[in-house]
């Protein structure tokens, strides 16, 4: 009886051992299913980016690189600043060809002493300027000129100089690609005293085909609308109403007065003016 019980106990223990082993094997066989790799369908972006990069590299390779060492001073100036002049044309309607030619002429193709010291490409004098200044011999000894941190701000001031002054308003009535009329008009408006100034601008424009930059802005049809300055309206034909952003300096420039003349006419003791204030602009 004892032997029969012992044998039964051994047999039962063996059966339990086999069952435990099977369960362990079964669990270890199912475990890898939770670590399967992500489907390939989730990876197309990697392939797409590779194709895009290859395409971009091909396009980059197709762009012709400019050997700057092969360009003369004027050509380098055009290369560096034509894009800025075109943007100014879009914003203010001044032909890019005129702006580039003026910059070439007045800055010595960017290598003039004043330009190198101040990034001032158009010889714009201080006249109430609150920014940095440099002093340079011009019509008189040690005249004050505006200094810019970047040349693009000089181009912007040039645009505003023409756009905001009434004496240049008639220029914007010319066709936007009529660089010859613009060149002669600048001289007539008093921009330069050199009687050959228009011919110098026209010669530069035609020699270096600067009018092609105008055509790019105007588009194939040549009828792209460009900004024009608003004609000034006076109250009772003799007064100007001050607007936000006005200063005595820019008002005096609009009406061909000096700041001192404007202050004298209006009996002003300081440069302070207010929006809505009426200033007399004619004697």
UniProtKB/TrEMBL annotation:
<dbReference type="GO" id="GO:0004040">
    <property type="term" value="F:amidase activity"/>
</dbReference>
<dbReference type="GO" id="GO:0031640">
    <property type="term" value="P:killing of cells of another organism"/>
</dbReference>
<dbReference type="InterPro" id="IPR018392">
    <property type="entry name" value="LysM"/>
</dbReference>
<feature type="domain" description="LysM">
    <location>
        <begin position="238"/>
        <end position="281"/>
    </location>
</feature>
<keyword id="KW-0378">Hydrolase</keyword>
<feature type="signal peptide">
    <location>
        <begin position="1"/>
        <end position="22"/>
    </location>
</feature>
<feature type="compositionally biased region" description="Acidic residues">
    <location>
        <begin position="51"/>
        <end position="64"/>
    </location>
</feature>
<keyword id="KW-0081">Bacteriolytic enzyme</keyword>
<dbReference type="InterPro" id="IPR002901">
    <property type="entry name" value="MGlyc_endo_b_GlcNAc-like_dom"/>
</dbReference>
<dbReference type="InterPro" id="IPR036779">
    <property type="entry name" value="LysM_dom_sf"/>
</dbReference>
<feature type="compositionally biased region" description="Polar residues">
    <location>
        <begin position="23"/>
        <end position="50"/>
    </location>
</feature>
<dbReference type="GO" id="GO:0042742">
    <property type="term" value="P:defense response to bacterium"/>
</dbReference>
<keyword id="KW-0929">Antimicrobial</keyword>
<dbReference type="Pfam" id="PF01476">
    <property type="entry name" value="LysM"/>
</dbReference>
<feature type="region of interest" description="Disordered">
    <location>
        <begin position="23"/>
        <end position="64"/>
    </location>
</feature>
<protein>
    <recommendedName>
        <fullName>Peptidoglycan hydrolase</fullName>
    </recommendedName>
</protein>
<keyword id="KW-0732">Signal</keyword>
<dbReference type="InterPro" id="IPR051056">
    <property type="entry name" value="Glycosyl_Hydrolase_73"/>
</dbReference>
<dbReference type="Pfam" id="PF01832">
    <property type="entry name" value="Glucosaminidase"/>
</dbReference>
